[in-house]
Prior knowledge:
Layout: E1 2-8, H1 13-26, E2 31-35, E3 40-44, H2 49-58, E4 62-68
Antiparallel strand pairs: 1-3, 1-4, 2-3
Amino acid sequence: xxxxxxxxxxxxxxxxxxxxxxxxxxxxxxxxxxxxxxxxxxxxxxxxxxxxxxxxxxxxxxxxxxxxxxxx
Length: 72
């Protein structure tokens, strides 16, 4: 399932790595694409939207919106 998250607080490559690693802790096979300029994180994963959102939150970032099934 592909999901796109609107995320606040990301500003550098460290942020990209932190979000990517947090998601992959829940799903090692997840495909993660981060667009820093747009504040978007597109995830292809078998995990639920709630689990992915929780992973991003736990990494210290704020999810402001979710678009299930969005194309990246």
